[in-house]
């Protein structure tokens, strides 16, 4: 073996004859560097290139366990072996706990017949361990660098995100139906003016997406867009959140704080679920809409700000007026601007293929080819009370089900865990049985209609192995097998 390709081993023993004998014993397999002083060896530059260090236990300057423990601190990946004639249980326990040694070699093995290969193999395994640890650390170092690079790139993309939204705008509202296109047309018109906008729509129809599109296609696109969910905030905090507050205005107000309307000067504030806004906050909002002025809570000073208001609700505000839950003057001020109504998904089911294709791009990460016509029929029969948000959840669950079964296309069986089945069996898990029954029926139909299991799998959008696993889990036998 060429000298430059031999593993490099350090032997540390206060007895120079032992060091010399060790070097002679293993000169064919290893490149040996000897030290008779453990104190000097600890800081020797040569040890940085070693792949294994072997140390005697009893040495006057520093015992072998303390020396190896010091090496563990200086170079943790270097494999450490104890080499002594005085090993006992206490000695080995200390060596393992303090120095984390890899192995122990009895000193009387040196030069004995039949012991050479045993000792050499222990050292070679130590070399492999050092290599493995250093390769692991190098991979971790590269992974850390890549993670940091991805983090920086993600921060960059997040800074660019508003501009990316600018470029898409109304195209984020997916669908070609006449009713949606009319909303988009009127939304584009609203973007070119500065009137207040009131958006009606059920939960999950895309009211915030529409409000962002109006902002980013309008003249205020270079200024902030801030969304506030009035239904999600504590009712006694909405006024101070919008208007800001002065120091000492209430317990905990230790300093002046600007409100959302002031911070968003020249931009747009989106007030989602405005029907849930408490009456005192409604009064402050009305004053702002009429005068453009805000007065922070606890302050006597008014401020002039220029902010466009886009509000949205899933309630019938006229009914809220009659119940005394919404101010009549605020309602007329908002409705005197531009009113838009986003249709529920059940009223534009012709948009399902476009929506599904768009959502699958983000949910399946390239593992799904699409959705079968039969599965599309299943979705078209759903009432979708949660609208697009509910559709997104359905697809996410169905994609998971399909991927786990090895499918590359969404089938009806992947949707039987959804609301329609659950509604038919409230309070039970029988929908799971229904799902399995549907899968079994699909599989048996495919097997009966095709000559081979491979062809049946292709029909179901599965690999042959994926179909076999699914059949095994469901207890389905191939009728073509005798």
List the helices and strands and how they pair.
Elements: E1 8-12, H1 16-25, E2 31-35, H2 38-42, E3 52-56, H3 64-74, E4 79-84, H4 89-99, E5 103-106, H5 116-168, H6 178-191, E6 197-200, H7 207-216, E7 225-229, H8 238-243, E8 244-245, E9 257-258, H9 260-263, E10 268-272, H10 279-291, E11 293-294, E12 303-304, E13 308-313, H11 317-322, H12 328-335, E14 338-341, H13 352-363, E15 370-371, H14 373-380, H15 387-404, E16 409-410, H16 419-424, H17 430-449, H18 453-459, H19 464-474
Parallel strand pairs: 1-2, 1-3, 3-4, 4-5, 6-13, 6-14, 7-10, 10-13, 15-16
Antiparallel strand pairs: 8-9, 11-12
Helix pairs in contact: 3-4, 6-7, 13-15, 17-18, 18-19
Q: Brief overview, please?
A:
The protein has 19 helices and 16 strands. It is of the alpha/beta class.
Commentary on this structure:
The protein has 482 residues and is of the alpha/beta class. It folds into three domains: 3-136, 3-Layer(aba) Sandwich (Rossmann fold); 173-343, 3-Layer(aba) Sandwich (Rossmann fold); 347-474, Helicase, Ruva Protein, domain 3, CATH 1.10.8.60. 48% of the residues lie in helices and 13% in strands. The protein contains 19 helices and 16 strands. Strands 2-1-3-4-5 form a five-stranded parallel β-sheet, with helices on both faces. A five-stranded parallel β-sheet has the order 7-10-13-6-14, with helices on one face. Strands 8-9 form a two-stranded antiparallel sheet. The radius of gyration is 37 Å and the shape is flat.
Question: Number of helical segments?
Answer: 19
SS elements, strand count: 16
Main sheet properties: 5 strands, parallel
Number of domains: 3
- Cα distance, first to last residue? 61 Å
CATH H-level homologous superfamily name of the largest domain: P-loop containing nucleotide triphosphate hydrolases
